[in-house]
TrEMBL record:
SUPFAM superfamilies listed in its UniProt record: Protein kinase-like (PK-like)
Keywords assigned by UniProt, alphabetized: ATP-binding, Kinase, Nucleotide-binding, Serine/threonine-protein kinase, Transferase
EC assignment: 2.7.11.1
Protein name per Swiss-Prot or TrEMBL: non-specific serine/threonine protein kinase
Enzyme class, spelled out: transferase
InterPro entries: Kinase-like_dom_sf, RIO_dom
Family annotation (Pfam families): RIO1
GO MF terms, alphabetically ordered: ATP binding; protein serine kinase activity; protein serine/threonine kinase activity
Length: 121
């Protein structure tokens, strides 16, 4: 693999107006991977790079196929890890109540667009 552009999500200091958008970009990568037949199964702020050009998800050796018996459990854990990282680091910008399970189901259905759609009323 080529060297990725940018810095790890953990080390990035995102401007307020980009927080939800970057979270959405990461989750769309998770959606696209699922659509291609894979669940990463170790998603975290340590395995995502952020650059001007976009986001890169790396560290895939433990990924499982979407027909793995635990794939949906891993997917929900991945989604929870990503969104809760953003919520903890950027509490002002992120919705504080997100339906992780519904969000994971939307990813599995290929219907995910934005985390904003999964915030409690
Ligand atoms: N393609 C890459 N380009 C630049 N740095 C990378 C790349 N892949 C991994 N790294 C760096 O190496 C670290 C560890 O890589 P990773 O694939 O996450 O392995 P693991 O977490 O299993 O040790 C990353 O956090 C990152 O800093
Ligand atoms: Mg890693």
């Amino acid at each position: 693999m080529e060297k990725f552009a940018g810095v790890e999500l953990e080390r990035a200091s995102l401007p307020s107006e980009q927080v939800v958008g970057v979270c959405d970009l990461v989750l769309r990568e998770v959606r696209d991977a699922y659509d291609a037949g894979f669940v990463h199964a170790d998603m975290s702020q340590h395995n995502v790079a952020v650059a001007e050009s976009g986001v890169t998800v790396f560290d895939w050796p433990q990924a499982v196929a979407t027909d793995h018996e635990n794939a949906d459990e891993f997917l929900e854990r991945d989604v929870t890890n990503v969104v809760s990282f953003f919520q903890q680091k950027y509490p002002q910008e992120m919705p504080d109540d997100v339906g992780y399970r519904a969000l994971a189901a939307a990813i599995a259905d290929g219907e995910f667009g934005s985390v904003a759609a999964f915030a409690a009323e």
